[in-house]
Amino acid sequence: MAHALVLGGGFGGIAAAHELRRRLPAADEVTLIAASDTFFVGFAKLWELGGIRPLADGTRRLTDLDAHGIRFVQAEITSLDAGKRTAETSAGTFTADGLIVALGASCSPKHRRFFELGVHNLYSANSLPAIKAALEEMRSGTIVVSIFGAPYLCPPAPFEAALIVDEWLRERGRRDDIEVVVTTPQPITLPVAGPDASHFLAEQLGARNVTVLTEHKVDDVEADGTIIFANGRTVHSDLTLGVPAASPPAVVSQSSLAGASGWAEPDRETFATNADRVYAVGDCTMVPTATAQLPKAGVFAEAEGKVAAANLAADLHGGERARFDGHGYCYLELPGRKVARVQGNFYAEPRPDVELSAPDEASFAAKQQWESDRLAQWFG
Ligand SMILES: Cc1cc2nc3c(=O)[nH]c(=O)nc-3n(C[C@H](O)[C@H](O)[C@H](O)COP(=O)(O)OP(=O)(O)OC[C@H]3O[C@@H](n4cnc5c(N)ncnc54)[C@H](O)[C@@H]3O)c2cc1C
């Protein structure tokens, strides 16, 4: 009997655990360890923010994995010995025959300090009640959605948030008195999707009177709401919704899986690491493309988790191996319940071959279906 251990209960970890369960003999054990006992897709937070759908409606409990033959252990992982395939956790020591590391990204320590100075973390579900309360109260002033640094999770999400806030204010007749600004350290809105998609998104924001400040890397924030940029400019904000740069989780950066970047740097087709029968997937990895790196997004974490699980199952019992070919997509949600897809081959040379589909309501329905399919398959 073999034991496969999955560290992390997000997109990558859950997809990997299910794929392992599907491929491994029933006598083999699949264990998933995660600190949080709940799962929801990232965009469900923005739907809660915009009043589109309560977050609770899209939240599932990881204990439901037990009914699918996956043992869930809620515990804090404190260290990882990849060579020994051993994790130290608050629930004891776990050693396995194969390991898939899917611990996600953590928040840049520098940016964590900003959240102690009155900035709201747009990406944290815990911040949503305070953000909603602040929006309810606001009658005039400036709202800044600020991407503090890169890489950050889900490149389109901050711009989607700005459009959601814009719509929310318009519906309440407050938009004329409240300015909405998005700042990004990058030269265009969506470098990962290329100049055409970035231009399209900038036009959508412009049409809604949302100001976009590119090449504005945040250097510091002050308690009175002033945002200080590395280019010397300052912006006064009455309500700042901050997007932290992603940092490698300490458990990964302090392990032998970490490359020079501090992230796990697995093979980008098999997700094998430098340790035997140890794979790393999702946001805790740095996966190079011809021009930058694969976006940190759930669709990629899921695809990588499935590939890693197939390869680990083959390590343990033989059988077909899998490779990730770089194809994927991200959703870009626009006002009026319309969605465009940024899709293509992110591994293409000499640059990713990615394009933006025209936004439509059918793609919004497809995005809803995408979420409900996963919630049903993984937890139903
Ligand atoms: C607002 C927003 C919108 C988004 N929209 C989209 C979208 O439309 N499409 C898309 O594809 N992606 C989207 N994303 C990005 C997506 O949510 C992430 O890229 C995805 O969750 C990454 O999956 P992962 O499995 O790598 O990591 P995560 O989902 O972050 O999972 C990490 C897991 O590891 C656990 N963990 C971490 N450290 C420890 C530890 N020390 N001990 C125990 N457990 C630990 C966590 O509890 C968690 O279970 C969005 C993100 C946000 C914030």
UniProtKB/TrEMBL annotation:
GO MF annotations in UniProt: oxidoreductase activity
Start and end residues of each FAD/NAD(P)-binding domain:
5-288
State the coiled-coil residue ranges. Answer: none
Keywords of the record: Oxidoreductase
Alphabetical list of Pfam families matching this protein: Pyr_redox_2
- InterPro entries in the record, alphabetically? FAD/NAD-bd_sf (IPR036188), FAD/NAD-binding_dom (IPR023753), SQRD (IPR052541)
What Gene3D superfamilies does the record tag this protein with? FAD/NAD(P)-binding domain
Record-listed E.C. numbers: 1.8.5.-
The domain of life for this entry's organism is Bacteria
Q: Which PANTHER family match?
A: FAD-DEPENDENT PYRIDINE NUCLEOTIDE-DISULPHIDE OXIDOREDUCTASE, PTHR43755
Query: What is the protein named?
Result: Sulfide:quinone oxidoreductase
State the species of origin: Hoyosella altamirensis
